[in-house]
Specification:
six-stranded parallel beta sheet; 15 helices; alpha/beta
Length: 389
């Protein structure tokens, strides 16, 4: 079986890595991870593990780490295949053409293509035609395979590997578990990667982008997190879990009966109605519902941020949350392209007006990540330089 090693810089449990590790282990491959920034410290451990594949998440904020570590791997003489994936890699697959230290780049979700790659390595077979992978051949040619459509059968995928990071005691001391119920998002906010991913998958033939696991499947995983790993809090990371009441209401009923741990979720205000609030409140476990305000100027919010939420919907949703005693958190951004001082003050004023005494506020300074619609908006306005992306 293939030996896969994940490398990362920061001390954070990436759910994407856990998903990839679970898929690889299910297929019989061996997986490990090393966290660190000092090459002299981590190189002996890498060499001892003797990996067939070294995988690195290429996130925009940590792009340089991925490129630097790929160069170090090649300079060291290690024979492992250098594999990169993630949003930055997916948006800029030409990175493999520009950096000779990268052998394989994954576009889009990586669990299936990475497993197929490792299966081929294990069997000594050609892997140059695996969908979603761009590869460098022995003669230096780049093979650009088409992106595969999404696998919508979420229940067919293994639960995240919760053992991988626990080689480090630090992660065993964390009392909350991050959980993804599904993948994708039904909204097209201009500042989020989801709108770009949706387009990419539509071009690849996917007719649907947002998909959830069954209630039964999620409850099964949560029971393991509660009983085996002894987590005390569940942190649902999905962009929103309030958009499908047919899923949410029976889930809340099962959660109350079988899980009973404090939990927090994301929602969107136009999805938060009486039924949703009642179902969440009846669990007796929801300690925080998180939603995005982003801007207090309705015209700017609808037109530039491509949110679908009106001021009236924010007022109605927060009134319902107060009625049912649900504590909520709102996030908003400052420094958006096209934002004026008046709009900034409107944001602060609206956040204050719809807050409760126990509300939480997440104030973010906007970062123009490449390939997003709002970044393109800023470039067209002349406030960003495309060459710096």
């Amino acid at each position: 079986m293939a030996r896969v090693l994940f490398l990362q810089e920061i001390w954070f449990e990436f759910e994407g890595v856990c998903q990839l590790s679970a898929a690889l282990k299910q297929a019989g491959h061996t997986v490990d991870i090393i966290i660190g920034t000092n090459w002299d410290d981590i190189f002996p451990e890498i060499k001892d593990y003797n990996p067939d594949v070294i995988a690195i998440s290429m996130i925009t904020s940590y792009r340089q780490y991925a490129l630097n570590i790929a160069r170090k791997i090649k300079e060291s003489g290690l024979k492992a295949i250098v594999f990169v994936g993630g949003y930055d890699a997916s948006f800029f697959p030409q990175t493999i053409e520009q950096n000779k230290d990268i052998d394989v780049l994954c576009v889009g979700e990586g669990d299936e293509p990475m497993t197929e790659l490792c299966n081929a390595i294990d069997k000594g077979q050609d892997y140059s035609r695996i969908p979603s992978l761009w590869l460098r051949t022995k003669d230096g040619t780049i093979v650009k395979n088409p992106m595969r459509p999404l696998n919508m059968d979420m229940d067919s995928k293994p639960w995240e590997d919760r053992e991988l990071y626990r080689k480090y005691p630090f992660f065993g001391d964390i009392e909350f578990a991050q959980v993804m119920v599904g993948r994708g998002c039904p909204h097209l906010c201009s500042y989020c990667y989801n709108h770009q991913y949706r387009r990419m998958y539509a071009d690849a033939g996917s007719k649907k982008y947002t998909h959830l696991r069954s209630v039964e499947n999620v409850i099964g995983e949560l029971l393991v997190l509660k009983n085996k790993y002894k987590y005390k809090v569940i942190f649902f990371n999905d962009s929103t879990l309030t958009y499908d009441k047919r899923w949410l209401i029976p889930f809340c009923e099962r959660y109350k009966e079988e899980i009973g741990l404090p939990f927090t979720i994301n929602g969107v205000v136009n999805e938060i109605d009486e039924e949703v609030c009642k179902a969440l409140a009846d669990t007796g476990c929801l300690y925080l519902l998180r939603f995005g305000l982003e801007s207090g100027n309705e015209k700017f919010r609808l037109g530039v941020l491509n949110r679908t939420n009106t001021d009236e919907q924010y007022s109605k949703a927060t009134a319902l949350l107060k009625k049912y005693g649900i504590r909520y958190s709102m996030s908003f951004m400052l420094g958006l392209p096209g934002e004026t001082m008046d709009i900034s003050y409107q944001t602060l004023e609206m956040a204050a007006n719809i807050s409760d005494k126990n509300s939480v506020h997440a104030v973010n300074v906007f970062k123009p990540f490449p390939k997003l619609d709002i970044t393109e908006y800023g470039i067209n306005m002349g406030v960003y330089d495309r060459s710096l992306s």
